Amino acid sequence: MDTQALGLTLRLALSTTALLLLLAVPLARWIAAGSGPLRAFAQAIVALPLVLPPTVLGFYLLVALGPLTAPGRLIIRLLGHPLAFSFSGLLVGSVLYSLPFAVQPLVAGFRAIDPALLEAAATLGASPARAFRTITLPLAKPSILTAAVLAFTHTVGEFGVVLMLGGNIPGATRTLSIALYDQVQDFDYTAANRTALALLAFSLLTLIAIYWRRSERRSLLA
Amino acid sequence: MPDLAPPHLTVQLRHRIGALNIDVAFQLTQPWTILFGPSGSGKTTILRAIAGLLLPGSAHITTDQSFTLVDTETGVFVPPHKRTTRLAPQQPSLFPHMTVRENLNYGARSAEANLLSDFRIAHIADKRPADLSGGEARRATLARAIAPRGCGLLLLDEPFTGLDLNLRDDLIANLLAWQQQHSTPILSVTHDIAEAFQLNAEVIKLSEGRIVAQGPAATVLAEERTRLLAQLTPPKTPT
Q: ipTM of the assembly?
């Protein structure tokens, strides 16, 4: 198997998950805290990658990050090279593409917390920041874990965005799913088989782990 | 000379919640005051406004040191965590991921040990809320509300409803002892006449968001008492 592609895939998935959690936790908390047209708009934007062909997202990012737009030119001036066809570009695409998978479980988790608990914390003298750290975060832990696992596995499995935005550069943008595509194009079915099996086994095992944890928790509560 | 002391709290509040229009003005001058009224008369909303859990439509609330908690005219609103009011809500709201002891320590760095025994929760101190009975959860919620030091006003929302009489007497005795020790005023909410008489407190009688009477229980609730006693007296059997 293409170990370079495997290493790159894991590095991308880990960095994406870490960045996503930093971004998704405050975003989900804001969405969960109320209602209104602004939040509906934010939720629609977040959910877009669920329904959009990945190639569309990849295309827009390719254009936006390239020399044709002002932000793209700024990035090129700062980094010395365009974000497209680089690992950092891939990271930006992955974060956007997996955003709904991280935000949606978090919103559900934050909304499930009884507001009376946060009120109780406030009347006991806890600042909103302390209440978030000591009440909201611990109670939302299962949702945070689900968000992290889904973001990670979804990034491992992405293809369209990577191909559009990253191309197929070994060691920089060539992930496992791209390597698989390449192997099939080369009629190397033995290698393709191994790569496909590795991806399948990984996804299946992760999902089993999630559902197992859920059923354990349910039986603990019963 | 209690009449010369400044009131513990001065409240002017106008707030609309659903179909109910609350419009009240009162002062707390006695150690224990009761908001008395049927459900839906605005009692809980008044407590929540004093605790800072809702932004009232129009309000002016000041403490005994003339410290303004809310003044909608000048835009003053002290957030709940910066007030010294402590609220024990009607529904126990213990933090489910903490033990009873950790709950009590949440507002106080280390809660007094006798609090656990006074409220008869020492034996469940290391249990999680999910493992408590309804009565135990109520007692723990009460104990948690008074655990932090420096409580300026204790707000109790139907603290004894649904508890058996022995336990209620116990809790009242404990709260009165705690109150004497800390000289903290208490404002509680009830629709139970017996409770109002038992506490011998000042009563503010509410009806549909308005105050209809304020004074000692014996005066304000005389009518309710007569009606209750009539209900308790067995009807005369015709001879």
A: 0.87
